[in-house]
């Protein structure tokens, strides 16, 4: 016989599943069927999911109560949808498959279930029967087979420990001695907290003193035995008082795996018919945040605090979320407080001076004036009474919800229970939204770091790296930033770059930071707050105000406004991150917020990742700048500082090093006096670049000068140079070289004696535009021991030009085309009548224009011209 019924229809959208769960939960709670709620909610969730998500139709949920229990029906509008009934009855459904999972749960949890079809809809139903217990029984469990009963040791030991009002042990029974190895006389008089490890997570501190102050507490922790080992235990604490009114706490303790001996059955508030309670006290999820819940975390949290304040008729409410390591709570939503300046403020979880008390369990403060600092968030707000409850998911602290009133003594344990019940209902939704936001933030952080890495890797210029570092942090991570660099190990940090999201504030912020002592470059301090800028900002604002008062308000308004605006821009939280590269602090990154703003924990973590990448990029830019300076200095040392003036001969050289950094080695040239009236000239190309090539380049240039001045002829000079190169062994490089001697003639013109060892042949341009080779090819240097070379003689008449180039000119390419000797000859043939400098410039211009891309090889162009 049906004694009560309720029904609701849900649209085919994803959030309908959660709304349907809330409908069934509230319905069964109102009927006093608390022990059936969990199974009913699980089955309803699966069946409604099948209807609205998989079938894509609306779903009607009907709850029918009778004398034996409840029948729940889920009706959808897709009657022809196939169900794996036969497979389920034979247990053949794949447990990893999404299909049929709801029906498998029905088969496992329901007393009975089935599927009814009509011409227009399909109804999947299940029954859950109430357990029959004897009259007067507070709670009972079903009859179970022996193999399903909880497992204990051969002998069950229940430790009975009693502690006084100071938490000192006053009673220690024999089972406690057997469990933990201490005799009574060893522990009596000692605080129980000295033996307890709370909870069983390293590094989280102790909090058992809080549990001992509660009227009743039940849960898990660890106790260190006489051997120093931590024994996991399950305990039930009950606070009592003796005939003289002296309070104490009785603790019943068993091994954690035997918790079934003490553990109370999980029952929701109001579930026992013999403990009636006003329905208004059972504040549902929908009553707290509304239905449907917001999709975004901030909206969910803000609606939660507003409804919590209204639910307890408070003046203010706040919600804090635990950081990832659960050692701190972060303010995420407030209402009714005088300022939003506390947003993202962080306070430690455990009790103590300036810490957030009782974060792990419900707490009621009748008057904060008697316990100052118990709730730091409310300091100076005028709030007196406050009730706080934890948000927990699977026993893990995820946050804290609090409601405060300006009236002292406003709240009691009754309000704490109401708020805790609502918090238990909202905790999972908050955690789910938090994880969703965290995943979104992590994806965004990864994308941000990838983009930052690409930008930082795209430059090796120090100043550009500093600018990029600042531009990536402002305004994404901070309102303003300052980059300090450390030029040398052990030197003081130097303010190198300042950026503010408002460009008009940059000069003011920089001026303020110039007056502040830079932060200490100590790697051991890690990421840390830096109060100096905010202190300086407040002092600046104070001085500005006092000056204005002293002058009777006659101070220039523009100056005062600028000072106050700068102070406001820098007056919030500031943190310093060390820039560490290659195990050395090379700088500091300061990030700041304006007045009354703080950093979020995830922003600080992202800033740490960015600082590591930026530090490496900055150090790479430093190393590259140093290497470039060294390369350019070495390159200059390998080339002659200036060309000699030769009577009757016009000499010009153009040298172009390819690529960034001007890598040393490569091509070289030289023009030098040998003796009176005789000059040597050379142009060569060493194989490769870098230190090995530079060594051969320096050897060649200096050996040529030395050997030529010893009076040796061209072949002898090159043969000895060849032997010196081969003596370099593995460092040897082959070398192409054009070496010659220039003998200016008193009557005009010049005599040339040349040896062309594997080098592009020199070209002679006559006044009539004729171009011809001035030498013949011979073997290059650095390859063969026994090298036979010969000297060739040529003359330069007035108006003639001798052009000598390296292969960077003749091998200039555009696709499959190459300039080559013929192309160079065509360019030279159009240079009649030009000076040596003009000839070299025209050749260089022709080479650059031959292809659209930049030259990839070094080029040296040497021209000798006899004036007409």
Molecular structure report:
With 868 residues, this protein is α+β, with helices and mostly antiparallel strands. 33% of the residues lie in helices and 26% in strands. It has 20 helices and 34 strands. The strands form 7 sheets. The chain has a 6-stranded antiparallel sheet. Strands 14-13-12-17-16-15 form a 6-stranded antiparallel sheet. A hairpin with a 2-residue loop joins strand 32 (813-814) and strand 33. Helix 1 (16-30) runs antiparallel to helix 2, helix 10 packs parallel to helix 15 (601-637) and helix 13 packs antiparallel against helix 14. The longest helix is centred in the middle third of the chain and has 45 residues, at 413-457. The protein is elongated, with a radius of gyration of 44 Å. The chain starts with a strand and ends with a strand. Pfam families: GAF, GAF_3, HATPase_c_2, PAS, SpoIIE. InterPro entries: Bact_Sigma-Reg, GAF, GAF-like_dom_sf, HATPase_C_sf, HATPase_dom, PAS, PAS-like_dom_sf, PAS_fold. Keywords: Hydrolase. Residues 269-298 are annotated as: Disordered. This is SpoIIE family protein phosphatase.
